[in-house]
Amino acid sequence: MQKNSFMKTKRAICSWSGGKDSAYACWLAKQMGNEIVGLLNVMNETGQRSRSHGLPAEVLQQQAELVGCPIHLIESTWEDYTTKYIHALQYVKAKWNVDVCVFGDIDLEEHKQWEETVCKQAGLEAVLPMWKMDRRSLVMQMIHENWKTSIISCQAKMGIDFLGKQLNEALVQELEAIGVDPCGELGEFHTVVTDCKLFTQPMHLQWKEKEVHNEYCFIAVGVVK
User: Fold this and answer.
1) How far apart are CA 72 and CA 87, in angstroms?
2) pTM reported for the whole predicted model
């Protein structure tokens, strides 16, 4: 964990996927004294779904409201991702007077290097509160703290039956039994957070149709009005 980044209160933007890792990193950064002033998410080029998790804008915006801060959404192809991310960081730095950007990666060195590079080009500091924490212990910690998070997408080899399942001890054992990391750090699956310590109240989702696209399974969701 990068403790030196939390010597004093800093204004932080969180790279927000809508899933467990980004939310937990945001919570840890807040607990360490940082002021969370906004969230940042990259949507696909149509703006219909988030790049990483396939979440619609209304779900991300609802999460931001429950956190109590604005969310900045940008649209990008994978090819333009880095360039547009740097521009987005520069924008939120100027708009919200941001010092650092918080990321939820755990131990993928190439991700950390990318995050540090884009932040440096934007004049920000990259902070990874969960860096080098044990993956399984981290997931169990979330579960024991009663975070509610469900699988929103997964690799096709896992199968669509995992979509919509809430992460709990039984599911962790089920994932491990088929050789899947319970944290999904390698992209085996992604989650959506519906209740956590950051939220003022639980979020209720409407679970819709399931689909398979490019060897990945997705379940469409919407906010219950």
Assistant:
1) 12
2) 0.93
